[in-house]
Amino acid sequence: MNWLLILITLLALAGWVHAAIKQRRSLEIRQTLEKEVDLIHKSIQTIGAGTFYYGIETDASYWDSRSKEIFGFPELSDPIPPGFWESRIYKDDRKRVIAQAIELLSDSGSTIMSHDYRVVMPSGGIRWVSGTAYLRRDHDGKIIESFGFHFDLTSQKNYEQELINERQKALQGMQAKTHFLANMSHEIRTPMNAILGMIELLDDRNLGSVQSNYLNTLKNSGDLLMRIVNDILDLSKMEEGKLKLDSKPFNLREVVKQCLTVYTHASEHKNIFLGAYIDQRIPDVVNGDSTRLQQALMNLIGNAFKFTHEGSINLIITSLEDNSGIRIAVTDTGIGIAEQHLSKLFNRFEQGSTNITNTFGGSGLGLTIIKSIVELWQGQLGVESELGKGSTFWIELPISEPRVEIDTTTEGSTVLICSRFTELAQLWRQDEHAPSFDFADNALRFKELFAQGSYDHVIVEQRAPGGSGPQLLTWVKEISPDTFTTLIGFETFVGDCSNLPAVDRYCAKPYVVQELWCKEKQFPASKAILDAPSFSHVSVLVVDDNQSNLIVIKGLLKRFGIKAKTCLSGTESIQMCKVHKIDLVLMDYEMTDMNGPAAAQEILKISPHRIVGLSAHVGAEFIDACLASGMSDFLTKPINSSDLAALLGKYFPSDQTQ
Description:
- By secondary structure, the chain is α/β, with parallel strands linked by helices.
- The chain has 22 helices and 23 strands.
- The protein has a six-stranded mixed sheet with strand order 11-12-10-9-7-18, with helices on both faces. The chain has a five-stranded antiparallel sheet with strand order 2-1-5-4-3, sandwiched between helices. A five-stranded parallel sheet has the order 14-13-15-16-17.
- The longest helix has 49 residues, at 154-202.
């Protein structure tokens, strides 16, 4: 019996030990779970979330204190009254949120439900809430309970709304600025249309070389003013991402010469040497956007003149070694730029330092626009400068036309140059294929060198230091009649000397170095009227409420044999189209009584007419409005002979082809 008692005791002891171990393990598991739950609660509290639980069978909902605070009812007791949650949702969101909940609950595959909505606080205020619930299903897929989180999104939503409001303000500000710039552009272009048009009409006159140069300078300056207006408009286009480039063949050397010519008077006034060197391997005609290139060059040269008081400004264009493009550099001997300011130069409205802006003026937009042009062209730009020693701004553009063969017929010849600008000699040395030369910086030294050497070509500045250019060349011809002579200088001076017997050729500023050593005779010729095609059979009506514009366009049309009719209002144009046979109507967009598109629509009700819109506005919306009204085409003011020739040739045969 003892053994049985012992066995029972051992079994009881074993059971007690097993139960104790099990209880201990259960306690450890419970403590671990409590720690994990506590950690989860702390994490939830850290992110400011509230929790909730909802049992489907019991239809009972339990919220923690944070969820109750979020909804504005911290004293609310559990379970939450049925329908309470729905009742607190803002009326404009309630239908949407409940519909989403029903849709998700009816989807047997969904396990997570989430949506954002507004709730009404007891005070009547609005709070944004984000609710996320996890749906637990039984084996049959039936939802038995859900639990999840409430988040207070009010601060985030308010911040997002502030951003939206700021963006709207920015867009409105940009639209207001764009509208202002467009109106200013129109107001400036309207008188510029008359100015540039009158210049072109005067260009038909049989002017002398000096007067022709004056007129050409006036035209270039007018074009420069238009480019300044375009710079301002380009700023708006840049902000809207609408700045575009054309790709058409153009003469690179002509573009360079036009840019330099605008600053010839400035160079003479400031006694600054202005010149250019263009690598002979670069062809004359290349593909690209000549207008944008000219815009970039004008800005770079203009900046150089702004900050240069003496010395030289040179434009140097070379071919990249791998023939992948060209490098354009504008080098000056101006004030230079401190190293700490170089990184800011291409930022909008930046000019290096406040002192520069106060002293030299300017908007700081030029380099920003250049940067945008170069980036659109997929090129590169940069600057090298040292304070007090000048600057070099350079651009590399992917213009990859084949290189041309270089004429080396000048090898073996020697040129003698006399000029007050030693910079001319420095520029000459840029061209490794130019003939060798000797340089004299005054008349006495020139005579000494000429008497000692053998020169087949002499180049003398009209205002040669210590003497007169024409007198020096006369002296040369007396000694050596076969020596080729070139007189160089400012147009006003050398133009009056072009017919002197001692002058074989003259070159006026600006200097492109290759033109100086070229021996072709280039006397100025009076600019003859171009043989324009005749369209005298075309009946044209010009409609514009600006009398000056009517005079200009009528004068330009006269070049093509057209005696145009004119009127000053849209209303009058409708009446004239009823009375007269009109082949082409040139219709101004903006007039006081009736705008161009409205007048065009009325005219087209009478009978089919070819109507072309004219406007100083440059936005696409004005072109679209004209075309939508039934107009055939659109021209932007200022209008020139080339524009009209292209338009007439597009729609009408010339008299010669009839």
